[in-house]
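HUMAN:
Sorry, I am quite new to this. Are you able to go through these amino acid letters and fold codes? The numbers rather puzzle me.
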Amino acid sequence: MDSGAPYQRIVAEIRDRIARGRLRPGDRIPSTRQITREWGVAMATATKVIATLREEGLVDTKPGAGTVVRSADRPPTRTLPREQELGRDRILRAAIAIADADGMAAVSMRRVATDLGTATMSLYRHVSGKEDLLLHMADRVIAEETLPARPPAHWRDCLELSSRLLWTVCRRRPWVAEVLSMTRPRATPNLMSYTEWVLTALRGLGLGVEDMWYIHLNLVSHIRGLALSLQAETRERQDTGLTSEEWISTQAANFAEIVAQGRYPTLEHLADQEFEQDLDVMFEYGLRLVLDGVERQLTREAGGLSR
């Protein structure tokens, strides 16, 4: 092993930070994105750094927090499965753990293989490639929140229930939103079950095909957009160490300088009003607007159909 290899030098530096107490148990070590920026290396090198630290028993992957320094009283996990133990289930669990910790961008066939302690080519016996892997990851986590066998009697109750279910999944794992393509949807059983539920609720309302699809797609778009914002916020918090509120406070002087020009009186007025952005409130607000719009359309077209 070449001790002068870039990844080895980075490993040594992070190892030294841990040894000196600059990184304590539970502290997050630099993410792969931070490593690429701080040391000017490729993502593959950054991935190898994390893998090496994990193999040495120095770090753990913690969902929602990234890779953290291992507690001294926690024994290392076995990372070298026998080939016969490797299957789609184990691969998906490893890939989901990576996405939970570091986001979808960190998921690659090489990274999953590294975390499992196996050769990258071994994964292709169970998944055809990265796209197939991502699709089955999303389908698996959507199955964690199941729709009831008997839907509510009213169409609006059905759509509220299914939308809240999908939001719950995306709230827990925002990276799922990256797989929910609006223009190139992919077919898997659990994703299709959600679509079937929504379209079935709309089918008996006398709506045209375009209305049915556009209502469904607008609901998905609303949820997906919020989840992508949540994913971006999680990534920025990990990278900067600042909460959204803390980051906004750093922009206060710049905001004040711009509005002082007098071109944005409404923004200047609103800046003095108390407002706390809450994505859960925003989800419910947007869901209500979409469904209120559908209900008004039904009322107009059916001449007084009410809930």
Notes: The CA atoms of residues 87 and 126 lie 6 Å apart. Residues 77-81 have pLDDT under 50 and may be disordered. The two ends are 70 Å apart (CA to CA). The longest helix spans residues 209-240.
